Amino acid sequence: MSARVAAGFLCLHSLVWAQGLKSPVPFLATLPQSPESFYIVALENGSWSIVDVQPASDSETKVRFIRARRACASYRIDESEYLFEHLTVAQLAAEADLCAREDAVAKVIRSASKKDQDSWGEEIQGIAAVCGTQKRLHELPPVSSLRFSRIQSAAPHMAALWTLAQEIRARYVKETEHEVWLSVPWESRPAEEKERAQAAAVEIRNGDFDLAAPTISEDQRDDDRAKLSEVMPDSQEATAPEVNFGDVPDSDIPGILLHKEMISYPQMAIIAHISGDVEVEVSIDHDSGKVTSVVAKTGHPILQHAATDAIGKWVIGRYSGPTPLTLIVRFHYNCAPLVETETAYVAKKVKKPSHKSARKKRPPE
Hints:
Elements lengths: L2 H16 L18 E8 L2 E9 L4 E12 L2 E12 L3 H4 L9 H11 L11 E8 L2 E7 L7 H7 L1 H21 L14 H15 L22 H4 L3 H4 L6 E2 L9 E4 L3 E2 L2 H5 L4 E9 L6 E8 L2 H11 L3 E3 L7 E7 L7 H13 L14
Antiparallel strand pairs: 1-2, 1-5, 2-3, 3-4, 5-6, 7-9, 8-12, 10-11, 10-13
Helix pairs in contact: 4-5
């Protein structure tokens, strides 16, 4: 369709509205504008998630999943990315009207808003989409604060804005057969993944996602900082090892870890500043790959218990090494034990007065 014909349709649409009709010309509904790129930022319980969608080619789309989660009284950045082949940005977002006028989305939200609804700690989202020469920004309040079924019925393509990030993650899980975020200690991650996380931390700190990022509400702030870029630490701190787990390098195991129970760092050991290595002898059944026994030889008793309990649940496929196998479990924390700081943070929030007569219980930090 030529630009001149499309312009004529738009003029006719404006004329119909000017004459007071309640619905637009029907065939215009088949001509939605498609986004060229977009990103979605969600804030929930003080942690952030970003879905950044960019075209990689005429028929491929690159999606980055970025998470900024609370850790060590600061934030840690995780980043993973995936290339959707034979799928354009417009196709990935086909169900959601990202290029809807901002005032139209705001009007729908106002018409469906509940009165006196407390949605403390629930997910709020912001979307920035590039639509031709324009950039559309949408602020999406929590679903619980809305009569959402009304939006789904009256404007389903607008309702899809709230679920778009979730649907993209679900598509990723379906294609890759694993979750977006894997519980892997920082020290065990590939160098490429670490570099991507550091680059994402720099982008966030530079304010690249501030345009759509929700503002931190007063009752969730540690201080006066309200923007995403303001609360983000520098890239070194944002990607520093937490070492909340005991770490055993996979390269030390002559086989394939079919099931790897994470070795939790005992909270008592963190509080007491206990760290160090634990040497264990692991007996493995060559046929099933199951660990039949784990005996700790050295290390602090608290750390020994954590190591033997977790490794006893491992399954190692195609095991061809000796039995027992000697492994070294490393427990080294990089985050200071900030139990008092975290307690003070929670107390500060609880003491803050509320203007509402009833408030939901706030989730523990």
